[in-house]
Amino acid sequence: MHELSIAASIVDLAQEEAEKRAVRIVAIHLTLGALSGVVREALEGSYEMVSAGTKLEGSRLVIREQPVRVYCPVCREPRDLPSIQLFVCPACNSPAGEVIDGRELLVTALEVES
Amino acid sequence: MKSEPRIVEVRQNVFRQNDVTARELRARFRDAGVFVISLVSSPGSGKTTLLEKTLTAMQKQWRVAALVGDLATENDARRLERSGAPVRQIVTGTVCHLDAAMVRRSLEGWDLDELDFLFIENVGNLVCPASYDLGEDMRLVLLSVTEGEDKPQKYPTIFHGADLAVITKVDLAEAVEFDRVAACGALCAVSPGLQVLEVSAKTGEGMDAFLGLLASRAITQGLAR
Ligand SMILES: Nc1nc2c(ncn2[C@@H]2O[C@H](COP(=O)(O)OP(=O)(O)O)[C@@H](O)[C@H]2O)c(=O)[nH]1
Ligand SMILES: [Mg+2]
Ligand SMILES: [Zn+2]
Which residues 6+ apart lie within 8 Å of B175 measured at CB? Predict the structure, then answer.
C-alpha cells in the first residue's frame, strides 16, 4: 500500500502551493495515469486519512483518469488503450509501440478560496 | 466574507522527488561505469536464489555487489554474502518497495568506481515497486513456474515496466504442468516484444544464457569495461 505515502506527497505539495499563494484549498485536481501503479480507490481513502488534521482536512480529490496512450507504428497515430492487459492497437490489432502517455501522476490544478 | 472558489493551474509531478533522485543516481552509475540491474517479483519467486548463483558465477570475471530490500529481516543479505560479494541490506520496515532515496542512502561509503555490476533485489511485491524508478539500467521481473501463468495479466504495470522477464524454477515446470505458451502469451500481451528467458537456479539450466545476456547488455551500453 504505497498510496499512503503518495497521498502524503500530494498533501505536502498542495500545502506548499497554498502557502505560496496565501489561499485555502477546497479541492485538488489530479491526472492519474493507468500505468502509474497507483490504485484510485486506495488513493482516495489514503488522502482522506492523511489530510485529516491538516489544513487540507475536508478538501476533495478530483481525479481524471488518463488511459495509456501508445503510438501505433502501423496506423501512424496515437491510440488510447481500452485496457492495460492488452498492449495492441485498438484500431488495427498490431502490437502497441512506445507509450506516450499514461505513466503520470500529476497535480494539475487547485480549487482555492482566499 | 468568503469568495467563490477559483481554479489555479499548477503542474506538479507527484513522483518528482523520486524521479529527480533516480536521475542523479543514474548519472552517478554512468560516471562510475557500473551497470545496475534490479529484480522484482512476488515473494518467493526466487530472486535471492537466482542472485546468489549470479553473484557467485559473475565474480570470476567481474566486480559485483548487491543491495537487498526486505521488510523485516536480514536473512536474504546473509544468504547473498555466501557468494563472497559485498552485500548490503535495506530494511524497509513497513514500506513495501524500495525508492531511489533508500538506494542512495544504502550506497553511502561505497566506491562505485570499484564495481562493474550492482544488483538490487526489491521487496517481494508486484504492485508498489512499479511506481519507483531506482536509477537502474535494467529491470528484471521474475515469474516462477509455480505461481500461475496469468500473473502478468493480474499485474500488468510491473510486467510492462520490465526490460527482461525471467521464468524461474523451470526444474519444476513439468511437475506443476507449467503452460509455457500461456505464460508467454500473457507476457506478450502486456509487453509486446519483451525478452523472456527460462532458468533454474537449482539445476543451473538456462544460467549461461542469462549471465551472457546481462554481460552483453552492459557491454552494449559501454559499461562494465
Ligand atoms: N526447485 C527450485 N526451487 C527454487 C529455485 N529458486 C528458488 N527456489 C526456492 O524457492 C523458495 C523462495 O526462493 P527465494 O530465492 O527466497 O525467493 P525470493 O523471495 O524471491 O527472494 C526457496 O525455498 C528456494 O529454495 C529453483 O530454481 N528451483
Ligand atoms: Mg529474497
Ligand atoms: Zn494501429
Answer: none
